[in-house]
Amino acid sequence: MSPRKQPPARRWWSQRFIDVLEGYGLGGRMERGRRYARSGQVLSLEVCPGLLKARVQGSRRTPYKVTVETELPDEEEWQAIEAVFRQRLGWAAKLLAGEVPEDLEAGFRQAGVDLFPADWADLEAECSCPDWEVPCKHIAASLHLFAQRLDDDPWQLVLWRGREREALMQRLRPTAKAAAAAESEEGLPPWWPRGLVARPGERLVVPDALPPDPPARVLERLGPIPVPEPLAQGLVELYGVITTPPPELEPEPEPDVGAEG
User: Fold this and answer.
1) If you count Cβ atoms within 10 Å of the first and of the last residue's Cβ in the chain, which end, N or C, has fewer?
2) Distance (Å, rounded) from C-alpha 39 to C-alpha 41?
3) What phi, psi does 222 have (nearest 5°)?
4) Are 36 and 141 in contact, with CB atoms under 8 Å apart?
5) Beta strand segments in the chain, E
6) Which pTM value belongs to this model?
7) Measured between alpha carbons, how far is residue 247 from residues 22, 210, 242, 244 in Å?
8) Does the CA dihedral 121-155-102-84 come out positive or negative?
9) Could you give the CA distance from residue 79 to residue 57 in angstroms, rounded to a whole number?
10) What is the pLDDT along the chain (261 residues), one digit of tens a residue?
11) Is 1 in contact with 143 (CB distance < 8 Å)?
12) Burial 188-211 (b: 16+ CB within 10 A, else e)
């Protein structure tokens, strides 16, 4: 199988992971691994919870086998991570759309967990090559390719940290027990619109509507108008006049036909 060149990381989160790798202070080994990854020497890469498995073509005919393990957050830590996900409802939607929330790393840190392995000591890597250095260029190439893969599927990073996409999404959905608790607490089912104080089937008490915006609010949203202040104020007043409906005219009284006779 001939190696296929890989494009460099394009997205900011992939580059962030590469910055983390190069911040381990491992000298030129990571840079050699980057060149190996870009030249297509990594033939396969499998992502599992807490484990990367790769086959890397080196100088020998048989590809080398690489594994990179990281310690996974325990159940209590994942509960804290999931609590942060629930506070930030847009996270899951962005990840499903192939984007990474800019504060995802900070959110993991809030839960007491590192999104990216903080130190090289947090990883346990092995390669079947004869190179005694760890990481060798084959290990480094596997990590760089993993960073590049995150461009197209950032969920692989969450998977490596221990949660498959469907499993996490399932845990974030409200359970039937939680829905029942919400209903008994508020006296209403969780799908019932807030503000409607009657239960389904009873006579509704609709909350008062908010007052309408002043007619000139649209001009205020446009920001300052680049004309002298008196003229700007005149435009606001004129806009208010032309957008205010005229008062309804009272109908003229009908003539008293009987009085004429």
Assistant:
1) C
2) 6
3) -75, -15
4) yes
5) 42-48, 51-56, 64-70, 123-127
6) 0.61
7) 72, 22, 13, 9
8) negative
9) 40
10) 445 555 555 778 888 888 888 888 777 778 888 888 888 999 999 999 999 999 999 888 899 999 999 999 999 999 999 888 888 867 878 888 888 888 888 889 999 999 888 888 999 999 999 988 889 999 999 999 999 888 888 889 999 999 888 888 888 775 444 544 544 445 555 555 555 555 555 555 555 655 555 655 655 555 555 666 676 677 667 766 666 666 665 666 666 655 554
11) no
12) beeebeeeeeeeeeeeeeeeeeee
Sequence-separated (6 or more) residues with CB below 8 Å from residue 76: none
CA 52 centroid distance within chain = 23
- Which residue do the tokens 């005229």 mark? 246
Q: Do 129 and 30 meet the contact criterion of CB atoms below 8 Å apart?
A: no
CA–CA distances in Å: residue 120 to residues 21, 23, 93, 116: 8, 9, 31, 11
- Encoding tokens for residue 129? 């090559």
Please choose, from the candidates 51, 63, 225, 215, the residue with its C-alpha nearest in 3D space to the C-alpha of residue 125: 51
CA 170-46-84 angle, 5° bins: 35
Q: SS3 for 210-247, per residue?
A: CCCCCCCHHHHHCCCCCCCHHHHHHHHHHHHHHHCCCC
